[in-house]
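Example pasted here:
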Amino acid sequence: MDDETLFTIGALAERTGLTVKTIRFYADKGIVPPTTHSPGGYRLYDTHAVARLEMVRTLRDLGVDLATVKQVLARDTTVAEVAAAHADALDVQIRVLRLRRAVLRAVAKRGSNHEEMRLMHGLVKLSEAERQRLIHDFVDDTFGAVDGNPAMVELLRSTMPELPDDPRPEQVEAWMELAELVQDSDFRAAVRRMAEYQAQERAAGDTTGLHQELTETVVATVREAESAGVAPDSLAARLIVGVLTARYAETFGKADDERLRRWILERLEVSNDQRVQRYWQLVSTINDWPEAPDVTGVFAWLTAALRAHP
């Protein structure tokens, strides 16, 4: 072998930027053994060993473990296959790091204590499937045994909160609050009462679904009244109540009388829970959707007006 093509371990260290100790380690592990030895017993490396060592250094810099490096050098696997596998692994690591960063920023923003930080981190670490399971469990518990409002059940299941890979701190906060809300027994009981009431209404012949047009009319009418400073117990409110009860009577095919007003009031008291509105606000924040308008104040005004004008 031509001596001009051989490098001592010191020359190899200078050429590659690795330490002599590291090169010896790779040689002892059989990863880059010396090409030959000098008459004095010193390790010598040829240009192929140099290329092999540079491959090892590159793979190690990219985070590839030694066992996989040996497989690549032994041609048990290809560089492309290793690159693809490690790119996938890095995607997972990057996602975890982004979630951790979002949690830390949310903790800093909220001034959280250790316990809240632990809970927040634990909830965020759940897989997407595990997070969706929380929502499905909530829907199953509140609507599962009740044939109340299939359209609402479908809406809940089809609008799952999906925490992005790189969430903002407010999305982490929203997810934490949502997880607490859907696991709250009092909130579940309130939603279950809504479902049971809706089931009773369906059994009585109410098949008009979500009544979107009626809701839009009520919201627009009440907001106009509020903007004009109309108090729920005023004479002007009495006239507005009359207009709206007529729309209810038309929508549901009922007589516009005192019983209708009691029935509307009952519906409002059962369904107008601020926490339901909060649920949709949190889902919108997590999914980065435009926030749904808050109509709880509208129905609170109508409730007060109906009580003032029975």
